[in-house]
Amino acid sequence: MPTSLIIGCGDTGVRVAARAVAAGEEVVGVVRSAASAARVRAVGARALTLDLDGDLSALPACDRLFYFAPPPREGDTDTRMATALAALPSLPEYVVYISTSGVYGDCGGAWATETQPLRPGTARARRRVDAERQVRALRGDAIVLRAPGIYGPGRLPVDRLRAGEPILDDAAGGWSNRVHIDDLAEYAWQAGRTRWAHGVYNACDGQPTRLGIFYDTLADMLGLERPARIGWDEAETRFSAMRLSFLRESRRLSNARLVADSGIEPHFTDFRDGLAASLRAQSAD
């Protein structure tokens, strides 16, 4: 029976775990908290509670490695991943890593494809570039999925809208890219069980928009006021440094390579459908 090991088994990881369990595999999800462990067990997988900055000698051997844990908060390298990969008892047959589209840096609104040079503009993105390098060094055929903003049930800016928080005016900001969490989980699961022609993919819906339309659509669905727009001067006094760093980068992500190589179209090609499904799921919970 194949074994799937999911390091960083959070929202996306639990969805991948459920798919692996349904396929009859033994699944181990590595988590940090009791609450996360309970979610892993709820889908039929085994939870392993570990501190990724500590002793990882308990990591089991696996056929499929899914690495979804974020890097440390400081530095230019992902020391956490280095420790985990070194602790693996054997080389997995399949390796999948979820990275970020932030590795491209600011593209001035141009389309970003997987072949262009990486220009990470923050230490956070440089850590992701290092993590990609480590994964590809472990296995030359490892799959790296570069994800933009992940949305889905429980991952929507509902509280910001209810609080009446403004957003950056589209005239001052750049392009927004996204992927529904269920689509991302499906991409990761399929990447962990089949061989694709390339090693790096933009894991997105392929339909970039301006940020305002996303917020306005969600507000309309919730029956709330659309958010007010502000310029950069005010944004710099109201938003966190991390949020500002995201807003300063503009690019449009193409998913053409992913669709061509995997044969999988995202279920939620239109974010409006994804928002509606997410709100229905939240109501059901």
UniProtKB/TrEMBL annotation:
Organism: Salinisphaera orenii MK-B5
Positions in coiled-coil regions: none
Organismal lineage: Bacteria, Pseudomonadati, Pseudomonadota, Gammaproteobacteria, Salinisphaerales
PANTHER family xrefs: NAD(P)-BINDING DOMAIN-CONTAINING PROTEIN-RELATED, PROTEIN YEEZ
Residue ranges of domain NAD-dependent epimerase/dehydratase in the record: 92-194
A GO term, aspect molecular function: aldehyde dehydrogenase (NAD+) activity
GO cellular component: cytoplasm
Record-given protein name: NAD-dependent nucleoside diphosphate-sugar epimerase/dehydratase
InterPro entries: Epimerase_deHydtase (IPR001509), NAD(P)-bd_dom_sf (IPR036291), NAD(P)-dependent_oxidoreduct (IPR051783)
Origin superkingdom: Bacteria
